[in-house]
Amino acid sequence: MQATLSCMYYETFGQIKKMIGQLDTWLDAAHEFAVEKNIEPNTMLDHRLAPDQFQFGRQVRVACDMPKSAAELFTGKEGPDLPFEKTLDDLHVRARSVYKYLDGLTADDFKDAATRVVSFSRYDVRVMTGEDFFLEHTVPNFYFHLVHSYAILRHVGVQLGKADYLGNLTFRMAASRFRGS
Length: 181
What we know:
The protein has 181 residues and is mostly helical. β1 and β2 form a beta hairpin. 29% of the residues are buried. α1 runs antiparallel to α2, α1 packs parallel to α4 and α2 runs parallel beside α3. It has 5 helices and 2 strands, in the order αααββαα. Strands 1-2 form a two-stranded antiparallel ribbon.
């Protein structure tokens, strides 16, 4: 059972890593869009969908920091030190650093992730299991901020579609359904 949980965490972080790679390509598209429209590229960091929502730069930061922090907690392996970003290039550095960090982790690194106890200073003495923290906090927050990053770019006119969101899919040859086919 423990090996299965370890693989589940590793594989889930693998998908998160893939999505951070997609985020990095969106940053390229944002830069290209800004240059094409004669807009200062770094102004993209300040766009938001609603007045009370984080702006694009902070959405990207949280999307990258959420899995990095969880992986540090679960593996005990310190992730990269990521300074506050001021430019699209800084966001690239953040995304690529987290991608590289996650890429260096193995399934064995997550062997105790599910049973780890996670505490929050803001919640007094209440704690969560690693499994609950990961499924109820890390994964939803990661995708929340990732999707908002994508939506902000779409909202300002960056040409991104569903394929840009999903990235490459893992296709395999289907087994023949009929003998002799």
